[in-house]
Amino acid sequence: MYKHGAFAEIMATKDYIPPKALGTLPVYFGTLPVHQFREYSDKVNTPILVSSFSAAQVQAGYNDEWSSFTLCEAIDAHFRNNIKPIGPIVLINVLDPSKHATENKTVTVSLLNKTGYIENNKVILNSISIADKQLGVDYDVKYTSDGNRLEIKDIKGTILTPVEVSFKEVDLALVTESELIGGTDAETGIKTGISVVDYVYLTHNMVPTLFCAPGWSEKETVDTALKAASQKINNHWYAFVNSDIESTSVKTIKHAKQAKVEKSYVSSNESPCWPMAYKGTKKYHLSTLATVTMQWVDYENGGVPYETPSNKPVDVVGMCLADGKPIIFDQVQANDLNSKGIRTLSYWGGRWVLWGGHTGEYEYGKDIDKKNVFDCSVRMLQYIANTFQSRYGIQVDKPMNRALKDTILNDMQEWLDNLIAQGKILLGEIVFEETSNPTSDVVEGDFVFDIATTTTPPGKSLTAKICYTVEGINVLFGGDE
Fold first, then answer.
1. H helix runs in 80-214, sequence order
2. Is 60 helix (H, G, I), strand (E, B) or coil?
3. To pair with 475 at 20 to 30 A between CA atoms, which of 91, 218, 285, 464?
């Protein structure tokens, strides 16, 4: 069409694409409603990278039944919160409809205007059949946009109503802890479950830095596996774990403190959380909220994880237990949890905030390595370690002469100095010492650079000491005159 002038067209609403926090990549482990796709094999035990809610719907699937499809909680929390939607995230789904399925079931469906519905969100889409009818020729079937029911369309108008429809359902009870944990097949080398994190860097060229498994990390075996897998991913990368202490049987602060020790949530590489939080009918694990908050706080700090997520707002209206029953306690009680290395929530300044920046190893009065007191200290050391490897991996196998050694020293020192100038660390020095590089190692081509750093501690408490003085009485009599 010929045009001459100024024009405008109103288009359909676009999904908000949140900013990408490229320095921080959360990896979530759990279950997705992949059975709602006709082809789902590429969505099982595969790292799925998503950057928005609409992308997650298309690539991974979404359903509001988070107790069954645990990874949907992460999708909602990252991309539909009212504080700062943030991504990308990686989702690793272990629900396999070809394995985790019921026997065939049959229901009767009535068609109106050639359309009928099955009110069921667990029907495996590619298992549906109608006797003597061919999918795509006689009828079509798809899930509605909310993922809660199936729509059956009579294409030719030849299906008599009511009609019997057969299908299988996914059976979430068949998904076990051992499948979530996974491993590497000794024969094929194929990885499953948590071990799939090894594919993240290989398939997306991104370093995984946060682990979270809402609904699963409250199981001791899963939490142990997460912590083990988070160290030396691909024999290189380090990640931090946000975990949960379950609130089904653990219903009090006293029991939460006991469960933390009994279930071994005591690692310097994790922050255990308790209880849960809610907004409307939705219940969130605090591990998920902590992961979301870490990502947007890091993003606002240029991708550098030097600031704890503690005292940052979360998009909830209160705390609850696993059954949804509200629970309330004040900051004094929240501090009791913090003193034992448990992250929680606190209401402060007219908003709900994450409360507690310690690692699981922390306990007030306990003697631990100083670097393990705060989550941000541990994460900063991991950040420096990951940065060194990604920055200088390209130099591997080049001749290690004085020029290359000095290039690495000068370049890395400049990077550390920049962090110091921004207040993101207090000290950072890199050296190449003879004591760390004996001749026996050098002739093998193994070189060591020593980095010393002091991370910036958070101001966990700010105290003003206020006293009364009679000196001000003088102003009544003319002051100092």
1. 177-181, 200-204
2. coil
3. 464
